[in-house]
Amino acid sequence: MTNLIFFGTPGAGKGTQAELISQKYNLTHLSSGHILRAEMAAGELGTEIKSYVDKGILVPNELVIAMMEKAAKTSWANNQGVIFDGYPRNLEQAESLQKFFAANNLELTAVINLEISEEEAKKRILLRGQNSGRSDDNPETISERFKTYHDQTKPLIDYYQNLSKIKTIDGAPDIETVAKSIHQIIDNL
Ligand code: AMP
What are the structural domain ranges in the chain? Predict the structure, then answer.
């Protein structure tokens, strides 16, 4: 079973690529941001979650970890591999995910690291913000989201490098070119 993590700054294209690749390889796309926004819109924990998301900081680990594990279990029960998009985002989540794979006798196949300059990523998010309706796609929150990425998420590159799982690709080109680079990686795994 193929289990991937799509990694990168906000605006690197993780969500767009995860959607395309999950369809092509019949994997389940598990976006933590998407799952949290669904809970924000309708769930009991919505108000609490929104208070973190609107500040551009991470939602507490216990909450996110439980939501993502539940979603992954359902996919695995249906014999589908997964793409984690936006998860894990700090060391505790990454360690917890490794334990979760082991407990389910499964393995992380690879981490696809989409590399893009911060300037380009910010441009993309602001463009998306015009239509996304996302309360966190505004300049102040975007700055905080990048700070959160640098402080807590970026160190995971070393963590996965040590596990020999990182595959870095250039995320700057157009959607189709990036998708092709990802196909090549997956087909050679
Ligand atoms: P995203 O859609 O991936 O840009 O995520 C939007 C927001 O949801 C982030 O800025 C965080 O507040 C929250 N979030 C998404 N994924 C996680 C995660 N793995 N851990 C904690 N908070 C998260």
Answer: 3-180
Provide the pLDDT for residue 151: 98
Task: Answer whether 0.90 is exceeded by the pTM.
Answer: yes
Cβ atoms within 10 Å, residue 133:
8
Could you read off the pLDDT of 98-136 as tens digits, one per residue?
999 999 999 999 999 999 999 999 999 999 888 888 899
Ligand 1 lined by 124 (C-beta under 6 Å): no
Distances, alpha carbon 55 to alpha carbons 140, 154, 164, 174, in Å: 9, 19, 33, 30
Distance from the first to the final alpha carbon of the chain: 12
Phi and psi torsions of 12, nearest 5°: -75, -15
Instruction: Report how far ligand 1's centroid is from the alpha carbon of 10 (Å).
Output: 9
Write the pLDDT tens digit of every residue in 38-80. Answer: 999 998 999 999 999 999 999 999 999 999 999 999 999 999 9
Q: Note the CATH number of domain 3-180.
A: 3.40.50.300
Taking the C-alpha atoms of residue 72 and residue 158, their distance in angstroms, rounded to an integer, is: 24
CA of 33 to the centre of ligand 1 (A): 5
Residue 83 DSSP SS3: strand
pLDDT digits (tens, 9 = 90+) for 147-175: 999 999 999 999 999 999 999 999 999 99
Nearest CA to ligand 1 atom 19: 87
